[in-house]
Backbone:
């Protein structure tokens, strides 16, 4: 078969490069030689070679086969089976064909290093579907700051988008990065921190401070939750940093029934100053 440039050399990575290093190198090279951006005579050819190299090296099975057999593993004339030819798409001044594996080594239509389809990467470069004609222009995406309690319980806010008022529904259980898709735009949420509650997945953690006497003797206290105050019992001898679990008092699961839990962390406060009588009692306690 005709000599072909080594795939690792094409992407500018070592043969021991990690998947992340290969992906980053591909992004850089694809952006450099994309024919819509690079007008040199050989840009289209190099761009196709880069995509061919990435398609192999981004897949563990194909990469292992390439490391063992080289380009021959993907050449139909060599007897290995090669790639099945796929559909050809137009992009600007050239055509681009995406092939999927069809070799006896079990190479199938696996994902390309984290991209859901071979054209998705062009959206990250140019903000649209790369001009292939098969994808509509990318929808506008907006990030919206929402209150902690609205994210937990759900809510609705009114915003102005392209001069029009739109009502955005916040689903109960929304978190940072939760994305809601509308017909003509997408919205993701940025949840504001809460002064009392800290979220850990679908669980909520809060701190409750008690005196040393209450930790020793025990008492009933009220702990604030997202559903309001809940009375709990502090047992005698409770240690600082004890976690008390309040079942099903956390954040609703976003796409299924149920909720997380609320954990009340008990913090025992040690007095910095004592009265003469308190010191006397502590000395008496110490001596026993």
Residues:
């Amino acid at each position: 078969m005709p000599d072909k440039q080594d795939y690792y050399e094409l992407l500018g990575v070592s043969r021991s490069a990690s998947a992340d290093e290969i992906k980053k190198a591909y992004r850089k090279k694809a952006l450099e030689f994309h024919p819509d951006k690079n007008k040199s005579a050989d840009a289209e050819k190099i761009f196709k070679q880069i995509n061919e190299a990435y398609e192999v090296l981004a897949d563990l099975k194909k990469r292992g086969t390439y490391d063992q057999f080289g380009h021959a593993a993907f050449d139909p004339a060599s007897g290995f089976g090669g790639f099945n030819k796929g559909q050809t798409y137009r992009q600007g001044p050239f055509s681009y064909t995406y092939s999927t594996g069809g070799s006896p080594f079990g190479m199938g239509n696996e994902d390309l290093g984290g991209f859901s389809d071979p054209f998705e990467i062009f959206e990250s470069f140019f903000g649209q579907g790369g001009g292939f004609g098969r994808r509509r222009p990318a929808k506008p995406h907006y990030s919206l700051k929402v209150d902690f309690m609205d994210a937990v319980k759900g809510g609705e806010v009114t915003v102005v988008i392209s001069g029009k008022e739109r009502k955005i529904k916040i689903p109960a259980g929304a978190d940072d990065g939760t994305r809601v898709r509308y017909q003509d735009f997408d919205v993701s949420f940025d949840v504001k921190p809460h002064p009392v509650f800290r979220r850990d997945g679908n669980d909520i953690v809060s701190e409750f401070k008690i005196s040393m006497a209450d930790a020793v003797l025990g008492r009933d206290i009220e702990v604030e939750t997202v559903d309001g105050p809940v009375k709990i019992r502090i047992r005698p001898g409770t240690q600082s940093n004890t976690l008390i679990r309040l079942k099903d008092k956390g954040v609703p699961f976003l796409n299924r029934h149920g909720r997380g839990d609320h954990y009340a962390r008990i913090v025992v406060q040690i007095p910095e100053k004592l009265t003469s009588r308190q010191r006397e009692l502590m000395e008496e306690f110490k001596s026993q």
